[in-house]
Amino acid sequence: MPTELEMPVIGQQTAAAGATYRVLGVRVNAVQIPDAIAEVERWIAERGPSRFVAVTGMHGITESRQNARFRQILDSAGLVVADGMPLVWLGRWHGFKNMQRRVYGPELTDTFCAVTKDKYRHFFYGGAPGVADELAGKLRERHGIRVVGTYCPPFRPLTEEEDREVVGMIEASQADIVWVGLSTPKQETWMYEHREKISAPAMFGIGAAFDLNTGRLKQAPAWMRENGLEWLFRLVAEPKRLWRRYLVFGSVFAWNVGLEILGLRAFD
Q1: Using CA atoms, how far apart are residues 191 and 198, in angstroms rounded to an integer?
Q2: Whether pLDDT at 213 is above 80
Q3: pLDDT-derived band of residue 132, with 50, 70 and 90 as boundaries?
């Protein structure tokens, strides 16, 4: 977890959530963690339609180039935040000097709970059996949050009946926030498809944060996370699962971004 020195300053003037730039045709909000927290708190105060935060990086952007529906899903998000230093660097290149650090999923989760404490009702959906309960318990112990439910779905698509039961469970909990950990693009697709079924004002797609914030996965050292080298740490830790994401998708991403920056190809 981030140390006290690494934690973002909350209470400072935040950037407008409407400030955006595009990476390979995907809208990215030029925000930092305090900005994202302020925007989500505004959603909850408004009690309007359910909106979701897509915490994405190189993998999500590249995936969206191969999947037009996923690109539409990202564009439908209330916020698309830069969980990856390449997106931060591109934000600076587009002129957003506020883009100093990534909106790292595990840090966003922990910081949101640290700042808001017992202000909201939290539901945790995702992870392997027992992980949602463990994450909820750790965050409740650490920050005093109000946990109103958890659910770990099976590693297969839910039946219509099972899905109705899950929606009923979340609705009965009167959650303000649903934390979703299903990996990209499953979690974004789930939030998109359930945004009109669930009345919780905010949903976060935080993927690996379920395992990282419980300690089931080891985090890269802070210096690697802050300098665009987390991919190398994770690739060494899980080569069989992640080689394609980082070596293949990463190369495609770098090539396409190069074409875009040089004005040799436009992405929409």
Answers
A1: 9
A2: yes
A3: very high
Q: What is the pLDDT of residues 223-236, one digit of tens each?
A: 999 999 999 999 99
Packed helices 58-66 and 68-76: angle between N→C axes, nearest 10 degrees: 130
pLDDT, position 195: 96
Task: Give the pairing of strands 177-181 and 121-126.
Answer: parallel
- In this predicted structure, the answer to whether residue 63 has a pLDDT above a threshold of 50 is yes
CA distances from 267 to 22, 59, 146, 264 (A): 9, 16, 43, 10
DSSP characters for 2-55?
--TTTSPPSSSPPPPTT-EEEETTEEEE---HHHHHHHHHHHHHHT-S-EEEEE
Asked if 109 contacts 115 with a C-beta cutoff of 8 angstroms, the reply is no
What does the DSSP 8-state code read for residue 149? E
How many Å apart are CA 100 and CA 122, to the nearest integer? Answer: 29
Q: At 170, list the tokens.
A: 């979340």
| Distance of alpha carbon 211 from alpha carbon 179, whole angstroms | 13
Diameter over CA atoms, the chain: 52
42-65 per-residue burial string, b: 16 or more CB within 10 A, e: under 16: ebbeeeeebbbbbbbbbbbbbbbb
φ/ψ of 206, rounded to 5, equals -115, 0
Over range 152-162, report the average pLDDT.
Answer: 93
Q: 62 pLDDT exceeds 70?
A: yes
Q: Residue 154 carries which DSSP code?
A: -
CA dist 267 and 146 (Å) reads: 43
Query: How far is the C-alpha of 34 from the C-alpha of 248, rounded, in Å?
Result: 33
pLDDT at 15: 55
- What's the pLDDT at 268? 84
